[in-house]
Design brief:
The protein has about 290 residues and is α+β, with helices and mostly antiparallel strands. The chain contains ten helices and nine strands. Helix content is about 45%, strand content about 15%. The mean pLDDT is about 90.
Length: about 290
């Protein structure tokens, strides 16, 4: 059983994130969540000690918004995948759906071991994320479409082929889990035009207290297309969280995202998110929008 501390915002973050599964899941999900919640807290307590020994900024010192994103293990399943949570407005999520949508603790432990064994971790978060983003080079695995939002299955696929899918969303699902396995807080940035959608990981840098996207996720382009940009929000505010609606300027909107009011060129998005957005602003996007 994980112990609790005074002003324990890590435990609070686990409760905030995992409470959503209790709201939308059936009784089998509820039983599993109660067990998983304790194990998730224990895992990150243990990881905090590992970070201390390696001289890495401790996750226990992250701001609340970073802790909430860190312990959310459901990637962006609210909006996509075979067990998309939008379907739960009519029917409760079953245990298969819960297991599909969440990265398991055993997967996180194996990911952490792989990162250490391959010498991919660094005291500089930017370097660690770049090392993860360079895993690949990436083959067009058509079968990964059937694994959408299943980090556990995608990791098993990675171990067999030692490669990453080229699909943006499925690559982001894997990168997100690799980062969390090492205590790097993440959420998702999606930028979308009329003919393409790209989803990538937005991560917290504790040294600068900013949220960034690895520059590899903004490939050079000569097109002048403007993009709608949105950031995935963990389900802290549950009422209406799964609501979506069409919008002529942004294709669609949903309460699981913070969507920026103005569209951005690819170069402007690169400049803003590679340089980093202050965590105080991200907190407003995630908790109060």
């Amino acid at each position: 059983m994980a112990s609790f501390k005074k002003d324990d915002t890590l435990a609070l973050s686990v409760a905030l994130s995992n409470g959503f599964w209790l709201t939308i899941g059936d009784s089998d999900v509820a039983d599993s969540v109660r067990s998983d919640t304790n194990e998730i807290l224990q895992y990150f307590r243990e990881l905090d000690s590992v970070q201390t020994r390696r001289g890495i900024p401790n996750l226990e010192k992250y701001p609340l918004e970073a802790k909430v994103c860190l312990v959310w293990t459901g990637n962006f399943c609210s909006a996509s995948g075979p067990y998309s949570l939008q379907k739960c407005t009519e029917k409760r999520l079953n245990l298969d759906g819960y297991r599909w949508n969440t990265v398991g603790l055993e997967t996180l432990r194996r990911m952490r071991e792989l990162l250490i064994t391959r010498n991919l971790v660094d005291v500089d978060v930017d370097v660690t994320v770049d090392n993860v983003e360079r895993l690949g080079p990436g083959k067009d695995f058509t079968e990964t479409t059937s694994l959408a939002n299943n980090a556990n299955a995608l990791f098993e696929r990675f171990l067999v082929h030692n490669d990453m899918p080229t699909d943006w969303g499925q690559r982001a699902t894997l990168v997100d889990s690799f980062c969390k396995a090492w205590g790097i807080s993440t959420t998702f940035l999606t930028y979308e035009s009329s003919n393409e959608t790209r989803t990538c990981v937005l991560y917290f840098d504790p040294d600068t207290r900013t949220w960034k996207v690895n520059p590899r996720r903004f490939p050079p382009t000569t097109r002048s297309t403007d993009f709608s940009v949105r950031v995935f929000k963990p389900p802290v505010k549950q009422p209406g969280y799964l609501k979506t609606w069409p919008d002529p300027r942004h294709h669609w909107l949903g309460n699981m995202y913070y969507t920026m009011n103005d569209k951005m060129s690819l170069e402007d998005a690169r400049r803003v998110f590679v340089q980093g957005v202050e965590t105080t602003e991200i907190k407003q996007w995630l908790f109060y929008s």
